[in-house]
Amino acid sequence: MESSEAIRRIFWRHRWLLLSLMVLAAAAVVPLREHLPVNYTAAATVQGQGTTPDAVTQVQAIQSRVSAVATAPAQVQTAISQAKVNRDPVKVARHEISVAPLGSSAIMVLTVTDPSPQVAVALAGSLAKNVVSELNQLGIKDDPELAALSKTNSQLVSRRNQLLSQLGSANSSNASTSVSVQSLLSQLGAVEQELANNQAEAQQVITTLTTETGASVVSVPTSAAGASRHVAVYGALAALLGLVLGLLIATIREVIRPTVAQPGAGARELGAVFFGDCDARHRKIIRIDPDLPDRLNLAAHRAGVVTVVLTGPGSRTRLAALAARLRDALPGAERVGERGAGARADVQRPAIVHGGHRPVGLAIDRPTDIAAAWPARSHEQRTVVTLDDIRLSDPPDDAALVVALPAFAPHSALDQAADLGVTADWPILGVIGIRRRSWLATQIARLSARPSVSPGAHVPDVGVPDAGAPDTRPLDAPAPEEEEEETKTVPGLGAMDDVHRGRDDD
Q: Is the Cβ–Cβ distance between 120 and 96 less than 8 Å?
């Protein structure tokens, strides 16, 4: 299936379904968003760390750390308690708090949303202070090196206290000459030195951690602004969802009951000729293409067909009206006989080419005497009928099928036409398209086709009737005789005499 045919079958055929679903989805979502209560947002600005990040990944890491602290239920509950309001901390943490970076720096914007502007301002300010305090304590509390130093410090303090206790219990009159006292004093000095070194290392680690963290509050909100309901965004998303749903329905429908996008596509699939289109309104044929009868007559003449049987999906009344319109438009038997008599002796007989189970067109068989093969066939008046006008139990031998297809006809109509041709041994001459025209479209087409007369327009010669002027002759006056009958020309095929003359040359 070509892409253009798929677009016509899915998009253009179901355009009203797609448009309706898009409009209904948007119309259902937009009022809901409009009637939502107004929320207010308050934004506080905090610095995630003291150093400037060098890459985007560091900014993302700072944002993740600030967001994790700000959306912790414990921190939110503390901020709610400080603001002295009644809110669900879990709901606020999940849906009402957001953190966004300010450019590529370590500055983060902490936004709190609430139906009350005062509560939004209070929560944003309290939460910003708590987040900064927690960020500054994160590295100090959980640093493993600092924890090890703190443990060593506790052991050294305990050892020092033990040595001081032993010195206090020692009764020596001369401490300077006592070996035990001198030993305890030496041990105590070593412990004091280790304790001083430990505290210096701990202070250095704390200083380093504080420098790397360096979180602070840049600004707190003083007022809150109304938050957007995002009506246009949600409406567009709803319309897009309706379009997707409509495409799914259209695709399923085309898979279950496939159609033919255009009559020309049906003609290509049948391997037949597309004769042209006709306009229909309310089961009546209001117009046919000017060259359609000539094309049909020439195809029937070359195939030796006298009876053209119309078939196709749709109303039988419309098929009968089309058949009557074509019968009136086909040329008479005398004119056909005059043009065909001169080329009757050496014309090659058309034969039917079968493609699989369906006839797919016409081919040329060996040269024969067409006068012997079709005696007096050229002088017979061709007619166009429907299946209701003939009996399938006794079908005519000189008949052929013409399929009348509207736009988006069911694909089963092609199979039925092919099966009918095989059953009745009728070739398929071609396809006629049926366009459904409304009254307004018909009037517009008539107005656009009406010629406009300008002052500089060509004036017809005297004695030659003007096609645009009304006929003022009496009703009983004879029609003017034509000096010479014009040879009928079929667009795209040439004059009928030229066609026969060219075949004689071959």
A: no
The Cα–Cα gap between 264 and 277 comes to 10
Residues in CB range of 438: below 8 A, 6 or more apart: 281
Distance between alpha carbon 151 and the CA centroid of its chain, in Å? 66
Least confident of 220-229, 308-317, 374-383: 374-383
pTM for this prediction: 0.56
Compute CA 491 distance to the chain's CA centroid, rounded to the nearest angstrom.
40
List phi, psi (to 5°) of 211.
-65, -40
- Asked if 44 and 99 touch (Cβ cutoff 8 Å), the reply is no
**Which residues are 434's β-sheet partners?**
278, 406
Among candidate residues 397, 245, 401, the one with its CA nearest the CA of residue 310: 401
Is 276:293 a contact under the CB 8 Å cutoff? no
**R_g over Cα of the chain:** 48
pLDDT at 464 over 70: no
Whether the CB-CB separation of 404 and 275 falls below 8 Å is answered with no
> Would you say 8 and 184 are in contact if contact means Cβ atoms under 8 Å apart?
no
| Helix (H/G/I), strand (E/B), else coil: 261 | coil
